[in-house]
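Lab meeting, item 3. Inverse folding demo.
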């Protein structure tokens, strides 16, 4: 039997209905194509949606929290300091000068993580890394190798970690890369020394790429390219064949997507299949 629903009658001033519909539309709460006031009320009641202005902090409260940030940094609790900065940036009603100051502070916190990680790298000492991903999940990694890498105009932290449970189901066909992670510095919450051995590097797979068209001449060799040669055959014509050492499939797919038809992933098949799936999804989006 369908679940029985409660009904309520609201008495609201003129114009309020339209305002509620506007809020529902803003948060994509709809019934069919129309905004749903009922759905909006349910979302607020279940505390899955917050509306209204963010909380406002008085100047003395902001100063107190900034003192707390400084004290936490001085005590080595960089993750907790970053948490307070993020709270102020996301939820505080800050003027432009204060926001800029906190962004600069956040940058200094990230630099503190980099300094700690570089110390572990120099000493070849493993460490535990506590991390909060984009879904607000708290993760712990036992890091036995780490290096900063530049992707898409910013630095990320590449690590080799013992834990694999969080990616095995996501990439069952790429066990060679299960131990690698690509992390944002600003999502690191804590670093603690660990025992054991330090590794010499990240895991990797070898990927063959064919650059064609304008990319035959304009492609610039990368640090991880192992081979780079021009080949010409009856089957595929003239292409620039690159053999690359790949440590993260996500960034490879991002790069290939920029070249469109001028770059083809030849092998291995699991990476090639990922590109195929992206293309099939695009076909559905564009009604092809």
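The presenter then showed the designed sequence:
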């Amino acid at each position: 039997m369908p679940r029985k629903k409660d009904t309520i009658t609201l008495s609201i001033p003129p114009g309020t209905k339209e305002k509620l519909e506007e809020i529902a539309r803003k948060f994509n709460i709809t019934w069919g194509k129309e905004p749903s006031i009922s759905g909006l009320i349910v979302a607020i009641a279940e505390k899955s949606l917050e509306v209204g202005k963010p909380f406002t902090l008085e100047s003395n409260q902001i100063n107190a929290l900034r003192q707390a940030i400084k004290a936490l940094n001085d005590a080595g609790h960089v993750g907790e300091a970053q948490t307070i900065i993020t709270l102020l940036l996301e939820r505080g009603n800050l003027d432009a000068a204060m926001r800029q100051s906190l962004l600069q502070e956040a940058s200094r916190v990230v630099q503190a993580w980099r300094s700690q990680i570089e110390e572990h790298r120099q000493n070849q000492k493993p460490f535990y890394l506590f991390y909060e991903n984009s879904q607000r999940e708290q993760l712990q990694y036992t890091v036995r190798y780490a290096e900063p890498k530049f992707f898409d105009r910013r630095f990320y932290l590449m690590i080799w970690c013992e834990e694999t449970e969080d990616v095995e189901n996501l990439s069952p066909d790429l066990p060679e890369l299960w131990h690698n992670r690509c992390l944002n510095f600003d999502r690191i919450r804590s670093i603690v020394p660990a025992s054991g051995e330090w590794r010499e590097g990240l895991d990797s797979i070898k990927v063959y790429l064919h650059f064609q068209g304008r990319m035959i001449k304009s492609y610039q060799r990368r640090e991880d390219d192992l081979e780079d040669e021009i080949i010409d055959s009856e089957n595929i014509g003239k292409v620039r064949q690159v053999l690359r050492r790949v440590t993260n499939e996500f960034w490879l797919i991002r790069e290939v997507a920029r070249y469109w038809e001028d770059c083809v992933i030849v092998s291995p098949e699991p990476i090639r299949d990922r590109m195929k799936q992206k293309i099939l999804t695009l076909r559905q989006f564009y009604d092809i």
